[in-house]
Amino acid sequence: MMSKEGAMGRIVVGVDGSESSKDALRSAERQARLTDSELQVVSAWDFVLPQSMALSTFDTADPIENQRRGLRAIVEEVVGEGPTVRLRLEVVESRPVHALLELAAGADLLVVGCRGHGEFAGMLLGSVSLHCAVHAPCPVVVVRHHATEVGSASTVAAGSEVGS
Questions:
Q1: Range of the domain at 106
Q2: Residues of the chain with pLDDT > 90: what percent?
Q3: Is the pLDDT of residue 10 over 50?
Q4: How many domains does the chain contain in total?
Q5: What does the alpha-carbon distance between residue 125 and residue 129 come to, in Å, rounded to a whole number?
Q6: 78 CB-near residues (< 8 Å, 6+ apart)
Q7: Which of 17, 52, 141, 151 minimizes the number of CB atoms within 10 Å of its CB?
Q8: What is the band of 57 on the pLDDT scale with cuts at 50, 70, 90?
């Protein structure tokens, strides 16, 4: 939904620390800048999947704080310390696909990487990105990382017909 000024209201991006998710963050930040949108950066994790703690490089007893610090570090690495867009960082204890779909409600765009740290890392399209592309309540952009070319990524957009 576009605001009266023609700017998008909110873009949601999922970040798990993978190179693909960092490319998704770059792409979402660029789109947020172009549309004067708020950028909601989401890190979702579940204790059942130890690899989902990939953002966690800090050693405290509070896993949510670990994720929050890890997410801040990735945002600073990718976007810089003084971002030019409105940022909201969200750390959610939930399966990533559930958190992203829930937070995408009312968003103008959901941006995800094509593969993360899940058990299907060798697939062309990860299970989270595929599920989001099919079930999201808003348009979805899937950003594909090219490991051979630093900073190179391509995107695939999936539309959403709201109300159908």
A1: 10-158
A2: 51
A3: yes
A4: 1
A5: 7
A6: 22, 25, 26, 29
A7: 151
A8: low
CATH number (domain holding residue 139): 3.40.50.620
pLDDT digits (tens, 9 = 90+) for 78-127: 998 776 899 999 999 999 999 999 999 999 999 999 875 544 444 555 68
CA distance 143 to 23: 7
For residues 92 and 68, what is the distance between their CA atoms, to the nearest angstrom?
9
Q: Which of 53, 35, 55 is nearest to 141 (CA)?
A: 35
Task: Please report the DSSP string for 136-164 in residue order.
Answer: -SS-EEEEEE-TTSTT-EEEEEE---TT-
The verdict on residue 24 lying in a domain is yes
Residue 2 is classified by DSSP as B
Q: Which residues contact 74 (CB under 8 A, 6 or more apart)?
A: 15, 17, 22, 25, 55
pTM (2 decimals)? 0.77
Query: What tokens were used for 22?
Result: 């960092």
pLDDT of residue 102: 97
In a domain, 5, yes or no: no
